[in-house]
Design brief:
With about 550 residues, the chain is of the alpha/beta class. About 55% of the residues lie in helices and about 5% in strands. The protein has 2 domains: about 5-305, TIM Barrel (Alpha-Beta Barrel); about 310-355 and about 400-535, no CATH class. It has an 8-stranded parallel beta barrel with strand order 1-2-3-4-5-6-7-8, surrounded by 7 helices. α13 (about 310-340) runs parallel beside α15, α14 packs antiparallel against α15 (about 380-390) and α17 (about 420-435) packs across α21. The longest helix is centred in the middle third of the chain and has 33 residues, at about 310-340. It is globular, with a radius of gyration of 22 Å.
Length: about 550
């Protein structure tokens, strides 16, 4: 365990969980909200996972679920707050609304109050996750609402003030924000100190999945690694020990955090103290293998963080700009069609709709913000990239799908999203930044790239993609594939059973796209989509 995480644990008065079970809908198994309290018990006992996250963000989670989860765990003999923990992801006040955020906070405080009646010495839930954090002001506003909700709960719910003692875990999940994480965290800590609320430690949640949706596979990897690096750089500057959480799913596009490769991803994201164990990890792999993998991650996490030289940082940021440019060149052309296909991917959790009065979608990409960072680190190539990325800025797009459904849709049409922009990006890094930059990228900044892309190639069938998606976008990805094979020495696909299923779906996909979507998915097609998810180890 590295010394910073050790210091967090001393200040926190408890172990920092190495594994965090989430309620992501990325598994082929359906789990209704009524089953989630029992799921929490299974995760923290049978699976050996150390923490469980109740999720209100974009999800139809009942107000009383925190009470249900704490009571189920109490009845099962699990002491929450000692070596097993529960955290809650509350809604964003700006992306959803203030009322939903306050309701979630009150739900946590009521749950703690009920637990304290059963066990006055219990610690309960003492950390909440703030999603889609883009500025320190959002965190400070949430801290203010926690104080308000704490007073309200004490007065109206007869809850002890201790039930509302909640710390915020910022969740940062877009490439520009991850690259600028220093400003967000420093602004939050300084702001809290300005109002007389000291931050004695900080857990920082780094989202790996959503930045890939908006900016591409390689930019998401590089931005997350740079964010972890910056978190540790900030520790001495702010005098606050920090412990990063890496939020990733099973498929490479969403993190490649899956059973059997834990030695690789804990090195790839070295320094992460906690890894999410999402639904696909638990339900779409052999259970014994998943349990063994959880125990292994519990041993490997919180290792020594990656160190980056000044040259590494410059290569990382400039490479990010290059890969963003090539990813968005396809994304902008294909997102309308991918949206239609994404609506076919089965729902396996009770989440808010992407569309509708209570739904919400992701923000549009902002490549110019990445360009500004490129310009800041390099006067020559960086300024050129800034101009190129600024020209790619769009003001309007269709409502973006969730990252899980986007990933599942891309795999369904035979065009895994890991490929998009990657091959052309590698070629431009070599041409524009030189062989040293390419070597740094492949050997130090992203050594798992070949393994990730080999997985994607096994599920690639661009003939079907070309029949469903705009041909200009698919032709670009075909060039990406050729470059990836050249640079990474990838093996040709061998999983022809999977490709046959993609081919079988092609007529239905063409029909759905031509119709602009369907009201109800054919049951045979739904079963086929679930089977394909099981074969690749996650729905999306």
């Amino acid at each position: 365990m590295n010394e910073v995480v050790r210091e967090v644990e001393q200040v926190r008065g408890a172990r920092v969980a190495r594994t965090l079970a989430t309620q992501h809908p990325d598994a082929t198994k359906s789990v209704r909200v009524q089953e989630e309290p029992e799921e929490a018990v299974e995760c923290l006992t049978r699976f050996g996972i150390e923490e469980y996250m109740i999720d209100f963000e974009g999800k139809l989670t009942p107000y009383l679920q925190p009470v249900q989860v704490l009571m189920e765990l109490h009845d099962a003999g699990v002491e929450v707050g000692e070596d097993r923990f529960v955290i809650v992801r509350v809604p964003s006040a700006s992306k959803e609304n203030v009322l939903r955020q306050i309701q979630a906070l009150l739900g946590v405080m009521e749950a703690n109050s009920e637990l304290f009646k059963e066990n006055p010495d219990a610690r309960g839930i003492f950390e909440v996750v703030h999603p889609m954090t883009a500025s320190p002001e959002e965190l400070l506003d949430t801290a203010d609402r926690i104080s308000y909700a704490r007073r309200f709960a004490s007065r109206e719910l007869d809850a002890p003030l201790s039930a509302g003692h909640l710390r915020i875990i910022p969740l940062i999940e877009e490439v520009p924000e991850l690259l600028n994480i220093r400003q967000i965290l420093k602004g939050y800590v300084d702001g809290m100190r300005d109002i007389g609320m000291d931050v004695s430690y900080l857990r920082v949640f780094i989202g790996r999945s959503d930045p890939a949706l908006s900016y591409g596979h390689v930019p998401a990897v590089l931005a997350c690694k740079y964010a972890i690096f910056q978190v540790y750089e900030l520790v001495d500057e702010l005098g606050v020990p920090m412990a990063p959480i890496l939020g990733g799913g099973c498929l490479p596009f969403r993190g490649h955090v899956k059973p059997g490769v834990e030695d690789d991803f804990t090195q790839e994201y070295a320094g992460a103290a906690t890894y999410t164990i999402q639904s696909g990890f638990r339900y779409d792999h052999d259970e014994d293998l998943a349990i063994r993998s959880v125990h292994r991650i519990n041993e490997l996490a919180a290792n020594e963080p990656l160190e980056l030289s000044d040259d590494d940082v410059e290569y990382l940021i400039l490479s990010t700009g290059i890969f963003v440019k090539h990813y968005l060149s396809v994304f902008f052309r294909c997102i309308g069609t991918i949206n239609i296909v994404s609506d076919l991917i089965p729902n396996t959790r009770d989440r808010l709709a992407r569309k509708g009065p209570v739904g919400y979608a992701r923000d549009i990409p902002e490549p110019d913000k990445v360009g500004e960072l490129c310009k800041r680190v390099n006067d020559d190539v960086g300024r050129e990239l800034y101009r190129e990325l600024r020209r790619m800025r769009v003001e309007k797009l269709p409502e973006l799908p969730r990252a899980i459904k986007f990933t599942g849709a891309c795999y369904t049409v035979g065009m895994p999203p890991e490929l998009i922009g990657t091959g052309r990006g590698l070629a431009e890094v070599e041409e524009r930044l030189g062989e040293d930059a390419l070597d740094a990228l492949l050997s130090r900044l992203y050594p798992m790239l070949r393994r990730d892309l080999q997985f994607a190639v096994e599920h690639t069938f661009l003939e079907t993609a070309g029949a469903v998606l705009p041909t200009t976008g698919v032709s670009m990805v075909n060039a990406d594939l050729e470059y990836c094979v050249e640079y990474l020495d990838l093996e040709p696909p061998s999983d022809f059973e999977y490709q046959n299923l993609v081919h079988t779906l092609e007529p239905y996909l063409r029909y759905v796209v031509a119709e602009g979507g369907v009201e109800e998915v054919n049951p045979f097609v739904r079963n086929l989509l679930l089977e394909m998810g099981r074969m690749r180890g996650s729905l999306g």
